[in-house]
Design a protein that fits this description.
The protein is α/β, with parallel strands linked by helices. It is 48% helix and 22% strand. It is extended and about 75 Å long. 16% of the residues are buried. It comes from Ladona fulva (Scarce chaser dragonfly).
Amino acid sequence: MATESPFGRFLSFVSPSNMALNLVVKIHPVVLFQIVDAYERRTVEAHRVIGTLLGTAEKGVVEVSNCFCVPHKELEDQVEAELTYGMDMYELNRRVNSQEVIVGWWATGNAVTNHSSLIHEYYARECKNPVHVTVDTTLMGARMGIKAYISVPFGVPGGTTGCMFTPVSVEITCYEPEVVGLQLCQKTQYAKRQVEPMPDLAQVADATQNLSRLLDGVLAYVEDVLASRAPPDNAVGRALLDMVNSVPKMTAEEFETMFNSNVKDLLMVVCLSQLIKTQLQLNEKLTLLTTL
C-alpha cells in the first residue's frame, strides 16, 4: 500500500504556480537606458537604486515599456522610500500614457537582498503579482546581466509562512523607433567623434541599401541551394515562403504610386516639424525681448 510522504503537504504548498513557469517578462531598451541613467545620477552614499516598472500584463506576458526611479534609503532592518514621490510620478505618467500601469519594480545589482522582500510587499499592494527585475550595472562578467523574479509564497499551512523569489524568463523587445535609436547607438559605439543623427531621407536611403544587401544575400542562398552548393534548410524555406506570400500583389506602377505617396507624407511631416520648431524659437526670442 502506497504511503504519503511526510513532506507531501509542504511540497504541494511551495510548488511554483503555472504562472511562474510560463511567465515571460519583455523589457524595452528605453527601460534599461533609464535604469543606467538613474544609477549614474545616484547619490554618493547610495549603493543601489530602485524604481517602479510600468507597462502591461496579460496572458502570461509582462511587457515593461517605461520606468522611473524612486529615492530610498536602506538601513539594517528597514527601508525608507519616498512613496509620495513615486505615486506623483506614476500619476504624471498616467496622464501621458493611460495604458501603462504598475507591473513591478527594479533594482540595480546582481542579487536579491534581504530588503527586497520589504519592497516587494509594497508593490504587491499596488499591483497583482508584481515582477522584480535586477540590472547588474557593475558589469560583472563584462556584460550587464538582467534577471526577473516573481514572489512565490511558501511555508507550512497554518504555521510559519514566507516568500521566495523565483526566476522567470526575460526577453528584450523593441518598437520600430527604438530599433532606429539602437542602430544609431551601435554606430557611435566605436566612433572617436560624436555622430549626429542622420536626416529622415538619409535614413530612408540607408534602410533601402540595407534591404538591398539582405535581398542579395537571400538570392545568393537560394541560387546556392538550387545549384546544390549549399544544403537546404526547411525552416529557411518556410520563412521565405511566408515572406513571399506576405508581399501584396501589385504592378510596378502601383508600387511607385504608393511609394511616392508615402514619401510625400514623410516630407510633409518633416516640413511641419521644422515650422513648429521655428515658431517655438521665435516665441522664445519674442518673450525674452518683452521681458527686457
